[in-house]
Fold this sequence. Notes:
The chain has helices at residues 11-30, 32-42, 54-66, 68-77, 80-100, 104-132, 139-166, 170-190, 200-218, 221-224, 246-272, 275-293, 306-326, 340-369, 374-385, 387-398, 404-422, 433-460, 466-501, 509-538. Helix 5 runs antiparallel to helix 6, helix 14 (340-369) packs parallel to helix 19 (466-501) and helix 18 packs antiparallel against helix 19. The chain is built from 20 helices and no strands. The chain is mostly helical.
Amino acid sequence: MRSPAPRSARPRALLATASVAVALAAADTYVVVLALTDMMSGVGIGIDSLQRATPIISGFLLGYIAVLPLIGRLADLTSRQRVLLGCLAVFVVGSAVTALAVELPVLVAGRVIQGVGGGGLVPATLAIVAQLWDRDRRGTPLGVVGAVQELGSVLGPVLGAAVLAVADWRAIFWLNAVLGVLLAAAVVAVGGGMPSRPRALPVAVTLVAAVAGWLALAAPEALVTSVSLGVPFVPFGDATSRLATPIGVVALLLVVAAVALWVRGAWPVLRRADLLGALLLGGTLGCVVLTFAAADPEKEIVGPLGFALLPFGAVLAALYLLHHRRADQPLVPRGVVVGRTRWSLLVSLCVGVALVAVIVDVPLLARLVHTESETVAAFVLVRFLVAVPVGALLGGWSLRRLGDGLVSGTGLALAAAGLVVMSTWGRGSLDQWSSTVVLALVGLGIGLALAPVNNAALADSPEDAHGTASALVVVARMIGMVVGLALLTAIGLHEYYATVAALPDQTDGQALLDAAVVQVEWVFRGAAVAAGVGALASVSLGLTRRHELR
């Protein structure tokens, strides 16, 4: 069991710094929205091969979700500040690899590494809140974390657009790397120094690996074209990859050596974290992500390998459950997924479904009935996105006087009502001022549910398992987003095709447009059902405030 860490002398400063890091990672989820076509071009993929770019997005989600349970558990077994710094370091490395990539496999690898680091910041930060604030006082800090995470979704496209206005897409990820380094320094400064002094050998090997990796991926022209210095950059045989060179192989070997040294130093903690359980559960989550996130929503529910991945994921899930029953110290400690924590996971799943439906289909509806401009359509969504962090702050503050279930249930009931109204929208609806009110109310309602869900899970989980509980809540929400989008889109497409089939004239452009609107309306109906289920499940989180002290 991890010994209790001393409380920071500057808890608000540490929370603020960690929250900025969470916002940066959240922004990185959406930053590729505007830069995706440029990134494709940068690695030699034409705009006519958009399906090949799917791993750029799904790779980030894979890294974000699959390793979350392990990182959450590590936050319970060692210093949460150390985990936060480790996640920032991984995020910086992933950002640098992405920025240097000139081929798709390297770009996808960079995005996966970014996802691992960015996703781990959330449970580490939530666990820090649980460590620094008593149960009766952590509502507002949890609201802050939820608010900045959603604020990142607003700032991501804006940040991407601002950078692209003055530089190319690589500058976005170099900026991420620089900000990650600055935030790590800030965490050390406000957290009372380094949790422990790193050993010299792993640091030295890591620095050498970083230099070799930069040389291999950047391939400076002055060195590559040099008669005497260019030999390490000559590809083997007919290979075209920059890593299939002497310097590339050296860089990869150094990276493996650096990772091995860091793992060796952390092995006592990693062993206690249940690596086999992490592999089985992470594999299960990875199969789910790749099945649904890699699907083309216009044609299919599951991705190209989904019918193989889903059975394999089911086998991994069964093996994990068997391992969980037999392990002395399982990845998810016994006694975590009990009580209100179980209901928190269900509510978080429903929040993810409702959230992704609005994020994806409001811009789509705007393009159908309001504007042909992607930018204007994105600004329609801003009416919703700005309200979510406001709701998160209000929800966290409300926990001072109200129960978790009352705040969450009220918010999701409000969101469900708004989504029902949105399911009736058609031509001219977005031109009315009332659409802004409805979008803001839905955003406010979803935001209200964020802090109560985390608060209930933390309150009912053991103190030495707060990181794990936080990670599971985040996983549930992300799975809700990934799977919910695929299922709701499938329902909408079914109604779209049924409507088109019933048309007397299937070449009528306006009638086809109305059929596309029907698809969006059904997605909103499905999201309203999810929000309603979440509101009902919220009752089990408690309608009155629990006065408990740690």
